[in-house]
Amino acid sequence: xxxxxxxxxxxxxxxxxxxxxxxxxxxxxxxxxxxxxxxxxxxxxxxxxxxxxxxxxxxxxxxxxxxxxxxxxxxxxxxxxxxxxxxxxxxxxxxxxxxxxxxxxxxxxxxxxxxxxxxxxxxxxxxxxxxxxxxxxxxxxxxxxxxxxxxxxxxxxxxxxxxxxxxxxxxxxxxxx
Length: 177
Description:
Blueprint: H1 8-11, H2 22-33, E1 37-41, H3 47-53, E2 62-67, H4 71-76, H5 82-88, H6 93-106, E3 116-122, E4 136-143, E5 146-153, H7 158-176
Parallel strand pairs: 1-2, 1-3
Antiparallel strand pairs: 3-4, 4-5
Helix pairs in contact: 2-7
């Protein structure tokens, strides 16, 4: 079919031959929704928020990130329940969920939480301080529509586990939106 036979709206449609990265897809989707995001990280230590910041225009959707590496920071800044932390430690699906909810509140504005909170917690190794397998990762996403947690057992060395946790986190957020 010649271009002249195409409907007018299709003639002006731009199609990119380059596939967007997951961080680009996430920022674009958040912009479409008019939503903001806050990130709480433990095992990923800032890698997740850095991947979002790498996208031009991320400042319009990203409120910030909290690297809550120490257990007491999870409690004091993100509001994770002290009893939960004492009973299960910092690497637990409910801890991840509470971190995601907590970062929404902590990085909100004027008493209004961010639209999306995401959290990572886990054990990247090489040793496990509490006996859970190295590669245990919990990722949580919290939105006004609810929250979800994905628990993973990732293989690889410390850097591979952290990188894969970031990749899986991005996909989980995109899927939740």
